[in-house]
User: What shape does this take?
Amino acid sequence: KQSKWRGFLQILGRATLITIFGGAGAFYYITQQERNPGHQLPADPEKKTVVVLGSGWGATSLLKTLDTTEYNVVVISPKNFFLFTPLLPSVAVGTLNPRSIIQPTRYITRHKTRAVSVIEADAQEVDPINKTVTFTDSSEIQGDVSSTTISYDYLVFAVGAEVQTFGIPGVKENACFMKELADAERMQRQFMDCIETAAFPGQSTEEIDRLLHMVVVGGGPTGIELSGELHDFLEDDLKSWYPELAGKVRITLVEALPSVLPMFSKQLIDYTESTFKESKIDIMTKTMVKEVKEKSVMLQLPDKSVVEVPCGMVVWAAGNKGRKVTQDLMAKIPAAQTNKRGITVDDYLRMDGTNGTIFAIGDCTATSYAPTAQVASQQGAYLARMLTQMAKKDLYDKRLASLEISATSAASEEDKKKIADEAEATKRQLNKFKLRPFHYSHQGSLAYIGSDKAIADLPFMNGNFASGGVATYLFWRSAYLSTLFSLRNRTLVATDWLKTRLFGRDVSRE
Ligand code: FAD
Ligand code: NAI
Assistant: This one.
């Protein structure tokens, strides 16, 4: 009996070793594949040029899916990386390292069949008549040339949106945003500055209360997730390192509408509100921020009275609006582009009024879909497939044209018949090409609400499945981990989560 057990344990031990070494080998192989891109075809002047503006969700999804064999591709973006926005609030409180949620655009383009040109610049102007883009290097270091113009055959406009301040006084000057990587890093510095300043000896009680009052404006998913993350930071780490202050930190979420998270089901809104209540996060609905001062916010309460509320930090998460480059482009096509929310496109994502030469995807468009990463990435992947189809169609068109020329100069009846047969076959292939309109498939809405809880509204059997709690939080984590664009990002994020669980968040201020 003993030897049976010994045999079983030996097999188990070998199987474990094979799994560990096999897994490590596969992991190493994939990382080396990612690190060492192979040879690429050079740019071909015979091929059409696709210029992509942006390196966010829409553009990156397009670049990942696009077959570059038939196109010369140029990417222009002021950021030479892709930012995984859903995990940005986690960076703001130090749960994740900023570098873990970005992916250099070249890591993607260097793996394409034909070399893609990546240019770090701001697109300043698009000329839809002459089909050109003018762009400028607005980084700190400038060379001999910092502005130039190039031509395109197709333009993919994916510049996203910028923070909406509604012209409210003091927002730009005194509030932190939560849109870019730099915003999250700035918020972390400011938050820790408030804590350290409150710990300065001799500070009055009122001043400590002010410094430790954090106001988050906007009850959309960004504001909710950020409030939840701030609460976690407070509970998990600040209580240990600043025991005399932690109990005094207050988080207030201000929302102009009657409820937070209008895109989620009622039951999940209630769940979020009750979780926030337990977490001692104050939610002020029907309350509008009228001004952000250096040390306070002016709030208009539901009864229309205006009060001044002292605070140490204001985070502005009150929505987005179109960028200037988008508004300028729309202004050049006034008859077709009249929607103030953004660019109008047809069912194939072609910008109205541009004869199918400009495509627009993501947050810069005004469609019936919400401005989310899910929509932008599906649009990017769809457009990549469509461009590949269009390139194939162009090839068949060219082939047909050359066969027609050959037919006129064919020497014998036999040659003529051969050419006619080939032309027929090409026509049959051409008839197969039918561009399908874009169809959005909603995979559900997810949001983290702090205290290791998340909420999810998921489509289920023609209905909706709403869930909230710790199990949903585990689902939230695994969903985002699998959505990250590379093995590198997945490894970095998983390692950061483990580091935070073991050692806590870093409270030092850079
Ligand atoms: P972006 O991803 O914003 O990309 C725009 C790109 O254009 C950027 O690379 C930018 O640098 C570049 N650009 C800007 N100006 C120019 C210019 N002049 N010329 C050239 N390039 C330019 N959505 C979800 O579905 N789920 C979530 O969980 C989620 N969480 C979020 C959390 C936060 C904190 C934020 C801010 C957003 C979140 N979103 C989420 C929304 C999602 O990030 C956006 O809908 C998505 O980024 C839109 O993709 P996009 O490609 O249109 O724009
Ligand atoms: P949002 O537009 O969804 O919410 C902004 C909120 O701010 C609104 O509810 C608005 O009423 C409020 N507001 C505006 N001005 C105000 C003022 N002066 N005072 C008080 N409140 C004011 O913006 P958010 O949250 O940044 O989201 C943008 C997009 O990104 C949305 O489409 C959202 O669905 C998506 N997103 C999705 C996430 C997810 O699925 N987990 C996470 C974050 C964003």
